[in-house]
Amino acid sequence: VAIVGGGPSGLVAGYVLAKAGKKVALFERKLSIGGGVWGGGMMFNEIVVQDRALPILEDFGIRYQRLQEPYLVCDAVETASTLTSRSVQAGLAVFNCITVEDVLMREDCILGLVINWAPVDRAGLHIDPLTVKSRFVIDATGHATEIVRVVQEKVPGRLITPTGRVEGEKSMWSDRAESLTLENTREVFPGLVVAGMAANATFGGPRMGPIFGGMLLSGEKAAHWILDRLEEDET
Ligand code: 48F
After folding, report:
1. Is 3 helix (H, G, I), strand (E, B) or coil?
2. Which atom of ligand 1 is nearest to the CA of 212?
3. pLDDT tens for residues 131-187?
4. Can you give the pTM of this predicted structure?
5. Do the strands 71-75 and 130-133 form a parallel or antiparallel pair, or are they unpaired?
6. What residues does ligand 1 touch, defined as CB less than 6 Å away?
């Protein structure tokens, strides 16, 4: 499995898949892994997590304080670094400083990724990319939902969304976005699953503030969905 984006949803997906013994790699454009977690709540280094995601915090060993029901507060630095280190310890291969610029695909299915060094991409240098084959790709690129948009360009109107296209993120509505993030975590083209804010952007869910429970749960759901499909492949 190839995961694009090292934010909270991508990291939890990678952790669950690696823990299940699958060969899984995560590609992140930036030097640091953790995505939006590092920003905390408007750069105050605390994030809010809904208590529905408590089992994930406990599994990772991330400490929390109770705020008011149903909210918990975690240290953003502890969360980003623990999500990263525990995922790598579980067996997730992390490649930072890599931009996923394209997908490998044939008519009806995603087959993998086309990758290049992020500095090469940023400088616009004429250096050919490399390819990575994978059974499934997870787009965990956050608000930008970059991989789904690349696929949309290649097969216009054929995404598994109401309009066949990226529906686009709706206005901020944190409560609603939380449950929709989970509903929207699914396959959007054969072989391509969306997680985290990319799921909301793909299926037209609202934006949300510095609330991360939905992101953690979304990564977990994407991983379990893929584990079920891999098991079907084997039988
Ligand atoms: O944005 P990000 O943290 O995604 P997420 O897991 O979590 C969203 C929350 O941080 C926050 C929220 C909602 O308000 O709770 O926004 O959905 O992490 C996405 C990561 O993907 C990387 C990007 O640098 C970031 O670290 N990324 C994006 N496009 C690419 C990429 C790409 N083409 N190749 C490699 N990495």
Report:
1. strand
2. 15
3. 999 999 999 999 999 999 999 999 999 999 999 999 999 999 988 888 899 999 999
4. 0.97
5. unpaired
6. 4-10, 27-30, 35-37, 99-100, 140-142, 144, 146, 196-198, 208, 212, 215
